[in-house]
Design goal:
Elements: H1 17-21, E1 24-27, H2 33-45, H3 54-59, E2 64-68, E3 74-84, E4 87-95, H4 104-118, E5 123-128, H5 131-136, E6 140-142, H6 148-153, E7 167-172
Parallel strand pairs: 4-5
Antiparallel strand pairs: 1-2, 2-3, 3-4, 5-7, 6-7
Length: 174
Amino acid sequence: PPPPGGARGAPAPGTSAPARRQVTVRAARVADMTQVEPLINGFAARELMLPKTLQQLSRNFREFVVAETADGRILGCAALRVYTPQLAELGSLAVHADAHGLGVGRRLVERIEEEARVLGIGTVFALTLQDVFFHKLGFRTVQKEMFPLKVWADCRQCPKIDACDEIAVVKEVL
């Protein structure tokens, strides 16, 4: 279905058509976190992500990349969380509803994969409710138990820990 606010490919409300065509994916700045926080917490309110405070995001902003319009609106974000020299998580992937279906998520994932390659990290994983999206990008489904460091770091804080519905996906990027 088309994203809220119009047909697929139509400019997002508040975003001009030229600005839409000029979406840039770049390393996040600490100031971006004021737009990233409500984006992530909007999904967290629907239990689709873990919530993050502005303080947490500001402390870890270097992990993030953002998709930004020419007029400075953040349409999406993703983070690369390094666990070992060979393993990192693609986390906090969020795309504003107005930009769904426009390739913003794909571009964010590709940028995170490139960051992992530059760092010499061969394997990137994610926990997701949208495994089909990741499968289209070359990820494969695996057992969550393959990532005990993730479980220790984040899952123990999740309200759905005893009824987790997330799917683990992984991709070799080197």
